[in-house]
């Protein structure tokens, strides 16, 4: 609906029985509505509009919100805590101008999908991973996240992740080779170093997955030399 202009009508927030709000690819501008009294609202998809300002913290009061997609807008500020509450939610905030760090409480959320790529986020995001998590896809690409990957455990449910173009350091953990569901990782353009794990999934992955790091070596990259630098 590219011909739709103006702001999202405030009367939308007066619909307590609303279950889904989906407005995609319009020229709507202004702020994301401050939903409060919506006990049944499960899906908000306002992707690829011209929305600006910050993400309203009132979204954290929606008890059934399971899918939130605000990607492809001009949103600024930090990410509020507890935006989603239900089991295995999806949170998509990519391609905005968000800053700051991910709320630590997101480490307690068992996301199905979380995509915060193409923002200006920083700090630690390792708490999104864990052997017992049920995540399918995690996208942190094109930010300034900085954490040690060495002890991260990738869950078996994980189908893909994109950590490229950050400041992630350490070595690539053995769980990359053992997470049985993993097909599409991306660790390129970081500060990783050391020998890659071998066996398991590693035959699935091309050199592009590991390109432009500090000093990675081992299949599918060239072999490690005996004088290879130690991991940072």
Automatic annotation (TrEMBL):
InterPro entries xref list: Leu-rich_rpt, LRR_dom_sf, PGIP
Keyword Cytoplasm attached: no
Keyword presence, Transferase: no
Subcellular location: Cell envelope
Keywords, comma-separated and alphabetical: Glycoprotein, Leucine-rich repeat, Repeat, Signal
PANTHER family: LEUCINE-RICH REPEAT-CONTAINING N-TERMINAL PLANT-TYPE DOMAIN-CONTAINING PROTEIN (PTHR48059:SF23), POLYGALACTURONASE INHIBITOR 1 (PTHR48059)
Record protein name field: Uncharacterized protein
Organism: Rhynchospora tenuis
Lineage: Eukaryota, Viridiplantae, Streptophyta, Embryophyta, Tracheophyta
């Amino acid at each position: 609906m590219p011909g739709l202009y103006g702001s999202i009508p405030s009367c939308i927030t007066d619909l307590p029985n609303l279950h889904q709000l989906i407005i995609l690819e319009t020229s709507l501008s202004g702020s994301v509505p401050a939903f409060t009294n919506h006990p049944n609202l499960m899906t908000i998809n306002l992707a690829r509009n011209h929305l600006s300002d910050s993400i309203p913290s009132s979204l954290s009061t929606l008890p059934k919100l399971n899918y939130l997609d605000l990607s492809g807008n001009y949103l600024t500020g930090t990410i509020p805590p507890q935006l989603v509450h239900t089991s295995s939610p999806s949170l998509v905030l990519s391609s905005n101008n968000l800053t700051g760090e991910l709320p630590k409480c997101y480490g307690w959320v068992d996301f199905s999908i979380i995509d915060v790529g193409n923002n200006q986020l920083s700090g630690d995001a390792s708490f999104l991973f864990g052997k017992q998590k049920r995540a399918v896809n995690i996208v942190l690409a094109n930010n300034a996240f900085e954490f040690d990957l060495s002890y991260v455990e990738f869950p078996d449910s994980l189908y893909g992740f994109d950590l490229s173009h950050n400041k992630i350091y350490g070595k690539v953990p053995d769980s990359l080779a053992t997470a049985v569901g993993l097909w599409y990782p991306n660790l390129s353009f970081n500060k990783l170093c050391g020998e890659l794990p071998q066996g398991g999934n590693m035959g699935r992955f091309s050199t592009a997955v590991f390109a432009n790091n500090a000093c990675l070596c081992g299949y599918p990259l060239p072999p490690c030399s005996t004088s290879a630098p130690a991991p940072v």
